[in-house]
Amino acid sequence: RISPDSPKLISLVFDLVKIIRNLLRNCNQFYTGDKAKEFFNLALNISKNHGSLIDEAYVHNNYGLELFRTFHTDEAYEKFKISYQILSDTKFHETSYPLNNMAVCEMFKGNYLQAVEYLTEGKYVNQSIYAGLAIKVHLMVCYRMLSEERQCRKYMHQLKDYLEHQKISDLNIIRKLSINLCISYLFYGEKIQAKECLGRCLKYIHGT
User: Fold this and answer.
1) Are the CB atoms for 138 and 119 separated by under 8 Å?
2) 33 and 70 in contact (C-beta within 8 Å)?
3) Measured distance CA(130)–CA(170) in Å, rounded
4) Which residues contact 148 (CB under 8 A, 6 or more apart)?
5) Stretch 6-22: mean pLDDT
6) pLDDT at residue 115 above 70?
7) What is the pLDDT of residue 46?
8) How far is CA 184 from CA 137, 181, 208, in A?
9) 3-state secondary structure labels for all residues of the chain
């Protein structure tokens, strides 16, 4: 029989809380709409009472992704901003995630210059390959929309080089890089390069 105040039982309860918190903060992979919001609010309560500021930042960021996905752009931006503010004081290299997401909100509203500011800051603090690629894709798009061809082509070259010379196991990355590069090449009237990029991901697009 384990005593209620036994260190072993307390440790077990805390481990269980962590597992539940981690499941809830990623609930947008399984739920959307009101059900996802309900779970995110529960995850926030657990993080505030039994977690850490970093846990809270992760929940806000993922909550923002769900809000953005359901077209609540302004609310999503506020969640990303909270995540950014917390991580700036706790784990600054991970601010690249909310900065990228804040930039996407600005892009969605046509504010490409502001998006570039967020993305540039994110690029310099980032330590994640995946986030780094997302930032470069969004910078490419922003500069294309701002008619800054030289800057756009700089990121086109970097992304194409990554696509051609890195061993990529994540099909999602192959699809996203190929499709976005294809759009940029078409924008500049380079149909052969666009076709090459599209050819790289055609077999991975079916059913997605």
Assistant:
1) yes
2) yes
3) 10
4) none
5) 50
6) yes
7) 74
8) 10, 5, 21
9) CCCCCCHHHHHHHHHHHHHHHHHHHCHHHCCCHHHHHHHHHHHHHHHHHHCCHHHHHHHHHHHHHHHHHCCCHHHHHHHHHHHHHHHHHHCHHHHHHHHHHHHHHHHHCCCHHHHHHHHHHHHHHCCCHHHHHHHHHHHHHHHHHCCCHHHHHHHHHHHHHHHHHCCCCCHHHHHHHHHHHHHHHHHCCCHHHHHHHHHHHHHHHCCC
User: For residues 24 and 55, what is the distance between their CA atoms, to the nearest angstrom?
Assistant: 11
- Reading the block at residue 1, the tokens are 């029989």
Q: Which amino acid is at 7?
A: P
| Cα angle 101-103-109, degrees, rounded to a multiple of 5 | 110
Burial (0-12, 13-18, 19+ Cβ within 10 Å), 179: middle
Residue 188: Cβ-neighbour burial (10 angstroms; 0-12, 13-18, 19+): middle
| Average pLDDT of every residue of the chain | 85
